[in-house]
Inverse folding.
C-alpha cells in the first residue's frame, strides 16, 4: 500500500438526502472530505496529469452525486462517492467523511457524519460502463428515455447522463435524423451479460433489424466497459467506431471532457475535435438534462 495521498477537504454542496420529508423537500448543506491513497511517484517524475488522478474530474463527479437524486442514507451516498475514486486505476484506497452540519435532530450540533474506508478489492465487482442510445423512428425522445429507464429498472445504476441531441445520420444518410444520448452507469454484470441486457432493451422497444446502420426505434451500444478491451464476434470493446462519431463524442464529452484521454485514446483527439466541428455534422442539444 502506497503512503501517498490526494486529499479534497471541506467540499460543500447543497443536496436532498435523508429519511425525513423536510430533508427531501428543503434540502441542506453537505460537507465532504475525500482522501485517496495512490502512488504519486510516477506523476512526480513525469509532471504529466495523465499519470495521476485528475481531482477536477473527481470533484465534478462528487458534486453531481451530492446535488443529484436523493439517497435515504448518507451511508449509501458515501459508498457511491467512494466508488468514484476507483474509476482511476491507480487508486488503492478511498476514505470518505460525509457530514450533515444542519442535520435536523432537534437541537444544535456540529454535524452528524459517516466515515467509511474502502479498498479497491471492495469495489472490484462493480464496473463502470458508458452506453450510447440512438433512435430515429417513432417518438425518439420517449424511446431514449424509455430505453434508459428499462436499463435502470434492470439494476444498472446511473452515475451520469448526457443531454439529448438531435444529430444528422452517419453512415447510411438517407434516413431521418437521430436523437442520441449517452449514459454513464455502474453494473455488476459482465460484458456479455450487459450486451444481452442492451439488446433486450432494444427488443422491448420493438426494434427490427433490417438495414445495417438504417432507421431504428432504439439502438443501444456499449462504448466502454472499464478499460476492458475485447474482440469477440458478438462484442468489440471499446466500441470500434466510437471515436469517429460526433453523435457519440458530443454526449460523452458533455459528461466528461477528459474521458477519452483518461482511457488512453488521446491519439484520436485531433480527429475527434475535427469531427465535432466538421461543417457536415449537424448537432443540436434538444434537452439539457432529461
Ligand atoms: N456488437 C459488437 N460490439 C458491440 C458493442 N460494443 N455494443 C455487435 C453493442 N453491440 C456490439 O449491432 C450489430 C452487432 O454488433 C450486434 O449484434 C452486437 O453483437 P446492431 O445494433 O444489431 O446493428 P447496428 O446498430 O445497425 O450496427 P452497428 O454496427 O452497431 O451500427 P452502429 O455503429 O451502432 O451505427 N447516426 C446518428 N446520427 N446517430 C446514431 O445513433 N447509429 C448508427 C448505427 C448509424 N448512424 C447513426 C446512428
Ligand atoms: Mg448498434
Amino acid at each position: 500500500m502506497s503512503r501517498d495521498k490526494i486529499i479534497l477537504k471541506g467540499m460543500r454542496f447543497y443536496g436532498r438526502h435523508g429519511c425525513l420529508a423536510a430533508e427531501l423537500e428543503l434540502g441542506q448543506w453537505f460537507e465532504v472530505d475525500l482522501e485517496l491513497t495512490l502512488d504519486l511517484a510516477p506523476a512526480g517524475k513525469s509532471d504529466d496529469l495523465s499519470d495521476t488522478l485528475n481531482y477536477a474530474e473527481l470533484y465534478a463527479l462528487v458534486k453531481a452525486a451530492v446535488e443529484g437524486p436523493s439517497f435515504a442514507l448518507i451511508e449509501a451516498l458515501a459508498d457511491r462517492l467512494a466508488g468514484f475514486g476507483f474509476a482511476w486505476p491507480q487508486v488503492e484506497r478511498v476514505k470518505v467523511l460525509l457530514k450533515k452540519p444542519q442535520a435536523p435532530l432537534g437541537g444544535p450540533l456540529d454535524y452528524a457524519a459517516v466515515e467509511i474506508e474502502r479498498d479497491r478489492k471492495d469495489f472490484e465487482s462493480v464496473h463502470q460502463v458508458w452506453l450510447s442510445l440512438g433512435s430515429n423512428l417513432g417518438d425518439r425522445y420517449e424511446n431514449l428515455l424509455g430505453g434508459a429507464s428499462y436499463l435502470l429498472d434492470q439494476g444498472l445504476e446511473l452515475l451520469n447522463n448526457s443531454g439529448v441531441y438531435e444529430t444528422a445520420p452517419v453512415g447510411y444518410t438517407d434516413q431521418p435524423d437521430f436523437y442520441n444520448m449517452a449514459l454513464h452507469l455502474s453494473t455488476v454484470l459482465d460484458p456479455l451479460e450487459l450486451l444481452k441486457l442492451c439488446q433486450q432493451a432494444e427488443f422491448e422497444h420493438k426494434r427490427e433489424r433490417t438495414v445495417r446502420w438504417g432507421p431504428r426505434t432504439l439502438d443501444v451500444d456499449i462504448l466502454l466497459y472499464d478499460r476492458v478491451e475485447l474482440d469477440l464476434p458478438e462484442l468489440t470493446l471499446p466500441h470500434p467506431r466510437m471515436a469517429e462519431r460526433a453523435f457519440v463524442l458530443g454526449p460523452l464529452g458533455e459528461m466528461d471532457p477528459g474521458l477519452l484521454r483518461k482511457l488512453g485514446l488521446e491519439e484520436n483527439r485531433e480527429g475527434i475535435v475535427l469531427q465535432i466541428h466538421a461543417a457536415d455534422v449537424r448537432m443540436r442539444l434538444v434537452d439539457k438534462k432529461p
